[in-house]
Design goal:
Length: 681
């Protein structure tokens, strides 16, 4: 009997400790911040509760007195937040006052924006003063979860609507930050002063939430892919009066875990696996409906548009375009043409969403009357991050083409580039990068979308061009310029050895240049204007034109031979200089994402080549013997003094042979190093 009583006593003590532990320290700062749902392992109460929440202006328009009470029952715990009236998933980042029975939590990166209890004593009433964010104008409600006992609690108890009036001091605008809204009052938004909460109040999970957020001072993983967080009061003008909003201390975070419950597609290729996307698209049907698909694009505009060369050499002010587009398209195939396009654009620093259509290889902006079934919800730009959100009805028609996002599948295309903006005229420049889904996408599915990519053609192009110019062309030029004194008594294929090496090197360079040119034209489906492209095109023309001109060179004794020497030297050097310049400018290309070591390897190669040419020039200047130069002088300045070239003794020509072997070995190392930096990206 004693043992039975003792067992019962221990059980009662453990139960009491469990209940006290559940409420004594308040709500957990994590999943409860989003769901306002206690992790007690039981379901909520569905009946009407006796608990009430009253909110009223008592001090001024920015301070509200909030009272939680019950005329008949006590409660042990609670958690309370201010939410946007038009969208209860939006946490308003105001600040609660506290007393000995309450404490304020810093939820989702905000500051004291959530109120909860500090002890497990029974309570009839709690009261707090809530301070709105500075210049915040909107209608809000206060939402609370009340815990009566461990297994009895009510969620989503809301106050009456409270209207916040504008601050009489006015709104201070930041010209570098905009928030644009084109939605009705019941459309979800992420305006300044709010924290997006995908889970709060609308659906619940038993026990631990699968969308847990680990909060710390150094890293915040948001519950949604695009989380607006503010540690300071945010500046906002009302969407009722002005479509432009200004914010400060606004931070966006990408949560790639959202791809477990939405479709995700990103640029550049493979960025979802590496978690370093410049542009990320998410898509999925709106919860509890199969009639509307919600799309979101977030773009790291600062990274996408920065001049990587300026940053690499220590510039503190990278060049960032104020106009750009980040576009997604629904296509019936993998080829551009007759596609429904939505563009998240930055036009002279202002974010917008527009709809367009691909007609062949061109893009046309649609008028408002042409894109039925599309709801534009939010466009925001701040601190180099561009965010757009819109919804499409599952069925819509665009210029005679019918779309059904529930029953049909489509390829998804992503692309971004610069936008030319002139008053009311906008034109997309050729894209910096693009990607298309490998298979047709079902919008009812979730997860990362696999991509069909032709980026291997870019690396194919880079490989052949590096081998052509850094390898073969370098060897061919130095052979013709400095190695004519070698192997005077020997020949190869009926010509002097130096000429055989020069000719074979330049022909190999020409073949590799042609293969590289074909591969890149297959990738871009045409020509894209840019510094790299223009320099590369000049180098290709010179590489093809010089050997053609050499076929028609006059005889050595001809009076016009000097003209050929000048032209051959000039074309060869122009092509080589442009090719090396194109290799430098390739660092800026977003399509290949080269690292800084690649840039430095090109710089070291150039320094090495210039040093070798300078040393050999000095070497020949100190020689005492002369020899008639050979027929072709590609790489040396053709002049009367070059007709006779000074050489050293036989021992010195041995030095040249060893020097040539060393030069070829170092060039081979440079080729392998530069190619490796290209292939590992």
């Amino acid at each position: 009997m004693f043992i039975s009583y003792l067992s019962m006593l221990i059980y009662m003590m453990m139960t009491t400790v469990t209940i006290i532990d559940a409420y004594s320290n308040g709500a957990p700062n994590g999943e409860a911040c989003r769901t306002l749902y206690p992790g007690h392992g039981v379901d909520k109460q569905y009946g009407r509760s006796s608990y009430r929440i009253n909110a009223s202006h008592r001090f001024n328009d920015s301070k509200i007195v909030v009272t939680l009470y019950s005329p008949s029952d006590t409660f042990l715990g609670f958690i309370m937040q201010a939410r946007l009236h038009s969208d209860r998933e939006m946490l308003v980042n105001g600040q609660f006052s506290t007393d000995e029975h309450t404490q304020a939590l810093d939820c989702l990166g905000g500051y004291q924006n959530t109120l909860t209890h500090t002890n497990s004593f029974p309570k009839y009433k709690i009261e707090s003063v809530w301070t709105a964010p500075k210049n915040f104008i909107s209608d809000i409600v206060f939402r609370v979860t009340v815990v009566q006992s461990k297994n009895v609690f009510w969620t989503a108890i809301d106050s009456d609507m409270i209207e916040l009036s504008p601050n009489p001091l006015g709104v201070q605008y930041n010209p570098n930050s905009f928030n644009s809204f084109n939605t009705p009052n019941d459309s979800p938004q992420v305006p300044s002063g709010f924290v997006m909460n995908k889970d709060g109040g609308h659906h619940h999970h038993h026990g631990r939430s699968p969308y847990h957020v680990a909060l710390s001072s150094s890293a915040i993983t948001p519950p949604s892919p695009f989380l607006t967080v503010s540690h300071q009061p945010l500046v906002q003008n009302s969407p009722k009066h002005d479509p432009s909003h200004s914010t400060r201390d606004l931070i966006y975070y990408l949560d790639y875990n959202v791809c477990s419950r939405k479709l995700c597609f990103g640029l550049p290729h493979g960025c979802l696996r590496r978690r370093n996307c410049i542009m990320l698209l998410t898509a999925g049907f709106v919860p509890y409906t199969d009639s509307t698909v919600e799309f979101e694009i977030i773009a790291d505009h600062k990274t996408a548009m920065s001049s990587k060369r300026a940053v690499a050499f220590g510039s503190t002010s990278p060049i960032i375009s104020t106009s750009a587009y980040y576009s997604m398209a629904l296509s019936h195939d993998k080829i551009m043409g007759n596609d429904s396009v939505t563009d998240c654009i930055l036009s002279n620093g202002r974010p917008q969403i527009m709809n367009s259509i691909n007609v062949g290889k061109s893009n046309e902006e649609l008028s408002e009357s042409e894109f039925h079934g599309v709801t534009l919800m939010n466009a925001t730009y701040h601190n180099g991050i561009l965010f757009c959100k819109w919804r499409k009805r599952r069925r819509f028609t665009l210029r005679g083409t019918r779309y059904n996002l529930r029953d049909d599948k489509y390829h998804i295309m992503l692309a971004f580039g610069r936008l030319s903006s002139f008053s009311n005229f906008r034109r997309k420049e050729p894209h910096f990068d693009k990607i298309v889904s490998d298979s047709m996408v079902d919008f009812r599915m979730t997860g990362s979308i696999s991509a069909y990519s032709k980026t291997f053609l870019i690396k194919f192009h880079a490989f052949f061009m590096i081998v052509a110019w850094v390898g073969f062309a370098s060897i061919g030029i130095i052979t013709a310029r400095y190695l004519k004194p070698l192997w005077l008594s020997h020949s190869l294929f009926g010509v002097r050895i130096w000429f055989a090496i020069h000719r074979s090197s330049m022909m190999a360079s020409l073949i590799f240049v042609c293969i590289g040119a074909i591969s890149i034209f297959l990738y871009v489906d045409g020509f894209v204007f840019g510094y790299h492209q223009i320099l590369g095109l000049i180098a290709i023309i010179c590489a093809i034109g010089n050997p053609i001109g050499a076929v028609f060179r006059p005889e050595c004794e001809s009076s016009k031979r000097w003209i050929f020497n000048w032209i051959h030297w000039l074309i060869g050097n122009i092509g080589f200089v442009c090719a090396i310049g194109a290799l430098f400018m390739a660092f800026q290309l977003n399509a290949i994402h080269l690292s800084t070591p690649y840039l430095w390897s090109i710089a070291f190669y150039l320094f090495f080549n210039l040093t070798v040419h300078s040393l050999l020039q000095l070497y020949f200047c100190n020689c005492h013997h002369t020899k008639e130069s050979s027929d072709i002088s590609n790489g040396s300045l053709p002049s009367a003094s070059n007709t006779n070239q000074r050489i050293d003794s036989l021992a010195d020509t041995s030095f040249l042979r060893y020097f040539f072997i060393l030069y070829v070995s170092v060039i081979l190392i440079f080729v392998i190093t530069i190619i490796s930096f290209v292939l590992i990206n």
